[in-house]
Amino acid sequence: MIEFRLQKKLHTTEGEMQLQVSGSFERRKFISLYGSSGAGKTSVLRMLAGFMRPDDGFIKMDDTVWFDARKNVHVEPQQRKIGFVFQDYALFPNMNVRENIAFALGKKEPSGIINELLELTGLNMLALRKMNTLSGGQKQRVALARAIATRPALLLLDEPLSAIDHTMRVQLQTTLLEVHRRYNLTTILVSHDMEEIIRLSDIVIQLEHGMIKQNTWPAAFFLNGGSSSPLTGNIVSMEDNTGTFMVVLLNNRMLKINAAGQDAHFSLGEKVEIVYKNAVPSIRKL
After folding, report:
1. How confident is the model over 245-258, as pLDDT tens digits?
2. How far apart are the C-alpha atoms of 133 and 136, rounded to whole Å?
3. Which of 46, 51, 137, 131 is nearest to 91 (CA)?
4. pTM
5. Angle formed by the axes of helices 112-120 and 136-148, nearest 10°
6. What is the pLDDT of residue 225?
């Protein structure tokens, strides 16, 4: 379990902001941080990683205290069992793919996991390639493989897919889920992508001006008005003969929606768009 209470005065483009967040999550959960720019999302990741020191609070991973302001405990980043994937990859250009992944391992750690990660992330054929010969999606796979080479207790992802085209983004989302599940990771993702969040997450935390506005499961987040953008999916079931309720599959998540009063008539398997207005969802055909 990861438990934390973080307090930090941040200097933003709009002036000073007091960040105050807390949470307690079971291991192996996939948690997403959502919010506008400047809400404090990346700062939360950096404090959990140890790159930024909170003004007050604590961080506890299982039975190990990583930070406690009152007891003056601050475990350095390299001593925390974390993996961190940055938006800009942060790879070594003078090393090839295999060497970048191997860099994360200590001299006494077994190197067998490198081949496993190359296979899992689809980098086998690129193992000897340098970074300047790779696409953005390939570089992000290298960054992910390196972050989990040491089998971290906590994987932190700071908008890792934001600079990648949609097709590659969907492919890497699948890779992220597979990695998260295979290695039993606790993962925290910062993302602005609505469909990405609902596909990947077990829990969504919405930050607003340094405070937690919502801490809920993905479908509830969108039903509570977290999204103003349309989402697409397929109708997978009708709840009764009148079609008053429908269950829509959004990637690997199912969302139950009251479709009473809809103008269109829907059929199972039909592709639809879900639009939220004033926190009320409506469905229309595509």
Report:
1. 777 877 666 777 77
2. 10
3. 131
4. 0.80
5. 140
6. 57
3-state helix, strand, coil in the chain (%, to 5): 30, 35, 35
- 148, two tokens: 């989990």
Q: Which residues contact 178 (CB under 8 A, 6 or more apart)?
A: 120
pLDDT of the residue at 198: 81
Bridge partners (DSSP) listed for residue 116: none
Q: What distances in angstroms separate CA 127 from CA 11, 100, 118, 197, 279, one per listed residue?
A: 41, 10, 7, 30, 48
- Tell me: the pLDDT tens digits for 55-68? 999 999 999 999 99
CA-based nearest residue to 70, from 53, 58, 60: 58
What DSSP designation does 113 have? H
Q: How far apart are CA 42 and CA 144, in angstroms?
A: 17
Contacts of 49 (CB under 8 A, 6+ apart): 77, 80, 82, 84, 156
CA 156, 217, 244, 229: dihedral to nearest 10 degrees?
A: -40
Kind of pairing, strands 15-25 and 280-285? unpaired
Q: CB 84: neighbour CB atoms within 10 A?
A: 23
Cα distance between residue 8 and residue 197, in whole Å: 26
User: Could you tell me how far CA 185 lies from the centroid of its own chain?
Assistant: 12
Q: What is the DSSP letter of 132?
A: G
Residue ranges of the chain with pLDDT lower than 70?
107-108, 222-230, 240-244, 251-253, 259-264, 276-286
DSSP 8-class letter at 264: S
Per DSSP, the chain holds a count of helices (H) and strands (E) of 7, 16
Up-side HSE of residue 224: CA atoms within 13 Å toward CB?
13
